[in-house]
From TrEMBL:
Pfam families: Glyco_hydro_6. InterPro entries: Beta_cellobiohydrolase, Beta_cellobiohydrolase_sf, Glyco_hydro_6_CS. GO terms for molecular function: hydrolase activity. It comes from Lentzea indica. This is Glucanase. Its EC number is 3.2.1.-.
Length: 310
């Protein structure tokens, strides 16, 4: 009798769902400011540079997402260590390691070597967060960057992203995860809604818009509402990357001139949250105003120009 009862209790525990999901915003006190972001490190190391004060006041002191990819080493301890440093503040992380990353753009190529390697990586990413509060943007551009991929590659990528949503749902219950949905002028809203649905957006909080791009918050909000409204039988909230959209989009996406910092991170603002996902001052690639700066590398002149709209 006692043995049967014990076995029954074990069965209940084994099948119990993950801890009840809570709002990471409610669990924390504002967004985390990363003291080791690229601009923060540059500010510390260049006290005598004439651009330092402006970059410190306007960029390095603001909450900026931390990107994780194949450069991050063993991903579970890397993520766990980062989230563990944030105290009562809410960290924003970006998972950026899909195989064939930036397949059509080419400037940020790389990613996990195989779908199996990616599944192991993204599972460990979610495990690294665990029950702690966080916001995660999942694979920028990955659902928009289909135009140079065949149907088999598209299906393979969609399956990987859906697996990612399942991992965050199961292993990071207090994380708000957002599947990336490109930007306001990339993929028609109804098409993107179908892609998000196929990729498991039901499993996560919502989707992200304008990551590493320049479209205005107003244009992004219009697009986000259209995407959400086109989802089949349900809606989802979304977040907007406002890191470089202060002067809007001029038709160029790779280190264009005349762009400006946007609204600093906050909840609300037309979307669920306005975030600085792209690190202001990090290059888009060897192009535009920074032809000799690799994608993801910090350039102080790019950062300084964003402060003033140069």
């Amino acid at each position: 009798m006692m043995r049967a009862l014990a076995l029954a209790l074990l069965a209940v525990v084994a099948t119990a769902p993950a801890a009840h999901a809570a709002s990471p915003v409610g669990m924390t006190d504002g967004f985390y400011v990363d003291p080791n972001s690229n601009p923060a490190v540059w500010v510390r190391d260049h006290a005598g540079d004439g651009r330092q004060a402006a970059i410190k006041a306007n960029i390095s002191s603001k909450p900026i997402a931390r990107w994780f990819g194949n450069w991050s080493g063993d991903i579970k301890p890397a993520v766990s260590s980062y989230v563990g440093k944030t105290g009562t503040k809410l960290p924003v992380l970006v998972a950026y390691n899909i195989p064939g990353r930036d397949a059509c753009g080419g400037h940020s190529g790389g990613g996990a070597g195989t779908p199996e390697a990616y599944r192991n990586w993204i599972r460990a990413f979610a495990e690294g967060i665990g029950t702690r509060p966080a916001v995660v943007v999942i694979e920028p551009d990955s659902l928009a960057d289909f135009n140079c991929m065949d149907n088999a590659k598209i299906a393979e990528r969609t399956a990987m992203i859906k697996y990612a949503t399942e991992q965050f749902k199961a292993k990071a219950p207090n994380t708000w995860a957002y599947l990336d949905a490109g930007n306001a002028q990339w993929v028609p809203a109804a098409t993107m809604a179908s892609r998000l649905d196929s990729a498991g957006v039901r499993n996560v909080r919502g989707f992200s818009i304008n990551v590493s791009n320049y479209h205005t918050t107003a244009a992004s909000t219009t697009y986000g509402n259209a995407v959400s409204g086109a989802l089949p039988g349900y809606t989802k909230p979304y977040v907007i990357d406002t890191s470089r959209n202060g002067n809007g989009h001029n038709g160029e996406w790779c280190n264009p001139g005349g762009r400006k910092l946007g609204t600093p991170p906050r909840t609300g603002g037309g979307a669920e949250m306005l975030l600085w996902v792209k690190v202001p001052g990090d290059s888009d690639g060897r192009c535009g105003k920074a032809p000799n700066v690799d994608a993801g590398k910090f350039d102080p002149q790019l950062a300084y120009d964003l402060v003033y709209g140069y």
